[in-house]
Amino acid sequence: MSLVPKFMRPAPPRPTERDGAAPTPAQRAKANAAEGGAGLVGYLDERTGASPFLRGFLFRKVPKGTNWFYTLGSATMFAFVSQAVTGVFLAMYYEPDPTRAYTSAAHITNDVFLGELVRGMHRWGATVMIILIFLHMGRTFVFGAYKYPRELNWVIGVVLVVLTLMMGLTGYLLPFDQRSFWATVVGVNINASGPIMGPYLADFMRGGAEFGQSTLSRFYAMHMMLIPGLIGALIGAHLYLVSKLGTSAPPWLKAEKKSLKREEI
Ligand code: HEM
Fold it and tell me: How does DSSP assign 121-188, residue by residue?
């Protein structure tokens, strides 16, 4: 039995008049249904034309020697999706107000059904995502995958690292306890000490001269809308380039190929 889902298999050739058997209307309808896929999947496919893209993406060839290190990018993506899903549930209860932020976060942990689990997943998931993104970056660096023609994907990746770290910074303030408050004060002050742009950046992050309501609102908006939106869009561009360029072969195989060529000369 083929493992390829039915709607992705090439359509069976239609009988033609040259074969001596012109299809009856019922046969033609059956052939059309087989080509388009008769169920919901076929309905969607006929209207979106998604199957050539999915076929190309899911059944693309990967180079010899592809190994577990190549899964780190997908693992990072999984961590991001998990953060997005748990974040949506947290946002249903969290209140970005200096007088209520701490109690609303405590309410999630202590009273809300599965609140402690979801908050814990989001808290630890943030650390996991940062570890995974750096491991993935290390893999692409060590395997030389940043070289031509994948430089642009590397640059997109660097922006993704910066944005992921910004997620960490903006999220850390949200529980609004002593630790998160003072850690953010230190973080913003470090930014303020930067040349030329530093003080402006710090002013922007605080939402004024002092830490307060506007800082918390600003961090919350950046944490749950601006930065995840940018990360989502950039992951889309990143994956488009991965599917267009394919993944690179491990360096030891490239070296083998080169030495083979040299021997041929
Ligand atoms: C949210 C963060 C990221 C996600 C979701 C992500 C996802 C992926 C996926 C799924 C792949 C294909 C499989 C693989 O090679 O692992 C990939 C490839 C790649 N990524 Fe990322 N990535 C992220 C961040 C980064 C970063 C930080 C860098 C480097 C600065 C980077 C550079 C690359 C490069 C150069 C490739 C091509 C690898 C090759 O051709 O062998 N990515 N990424």
Answer: HHHHHHHHHHHHHHHHHHHHHHTTTTSTT-HHHHHHHHHHHHHHHHHHHHHHHTT-SHHHHHHHHHHH
